[in-house]
Amino acid sequence: MTADMTGADVKERAAAQADQVSAEKHRHKNIPVFIPHLGCPNDCVFCNQRTISGRQFFDEASVEGQIREAVSTLLPGDTAEIAFFGGSFTGIDRGLMIRLLSTARGFLSDPSCPVSSVRCSTRPDYIDGEILSILKEYGVGTVELGIQSMSDSVLEASKRGHTAADTGRACAMIVGSGLRLGGQMMVGLPGSSPSDERDTALAICRMGACEARIYPTVVFRGTRLCEMTASGEYSPLTLEDAVARSADLLEIFDSHGVRVIRTGLCAGESLAAPGEIAAGVYHPATGELAMAEVFRRRMEEAVCREGLVGLPHVTFEVPAGAASRAAGQHRSNIRYLSEKYRIGRIKILEKSSLIGYNIIIHNY
Asked: Does the predicted TM-score (pTM) go above 0.90?
């Protein structure tokens, strides 16, 4: 406890910590089953799914054991969701798809098992009425669509093999079927501008997505994008650009009530292996940096709006669990605000009633 914490500060900190402990007691976990490249009709310029997923081959026989092992690590009160990721799930051999869904349904139908739903990721051009009926029959609750961009010129430059209209049609069908829609998009694709990316995020919101993932483009070896980088045809994102452009999207999704479940690729052994990343930047904490950037913007705006330059003390209240993000990596946000606005001391307290990136500022 710091010397200048008041009794109210202590009570609010205790309440926030209690909320966090309560949430941690009942976690919701994804159990990922990666199927690299299975079902993909073409290689996009950025894509090397075997590297991204960390799976060099797919062994159908191991799936049930893999899920069972993951279930065994869950704590009492946890819930879980089986997630088929890595390829275009609805584009794989129909028999294999149904066998995998049947395996997942076996866990769903077991009353003692905490698995409550199934999700899958796929391409917009691999969605139709028959596929959606199958997914619903086998307990799929969420379809994550690899939208990447809503700019046809960017999709063409990235060799995606589908159009923005295909995406719009697929999203309407998924939402219309009663399934939850997740939208996956990328930052820094060939020919993409920050404006294109903001338009894509807004479109994902308008098309009815409940959640989203943001992936800054990473240049992997063995991809066309690697060749484009070597020839000077493509310039990779810097970390600063990736963070700033991702933060723009976080603000859009937050303002529309769309939950961002990931920013940046998952850290994995294959990503850290020597030589896998050819150019550009990969940072395991991209999401944390982007969220910290959003908080910095909000705090700076509040300081300027309230005219709090040169004060000896300023206190920010932020949502429960968000204090470290608001402070910034290595307290970078606190240092930035202190130095730029000559604030003597900045405190960040957590308040359980706040959500998202909302903050309250006090000049004491």
From this structure: no
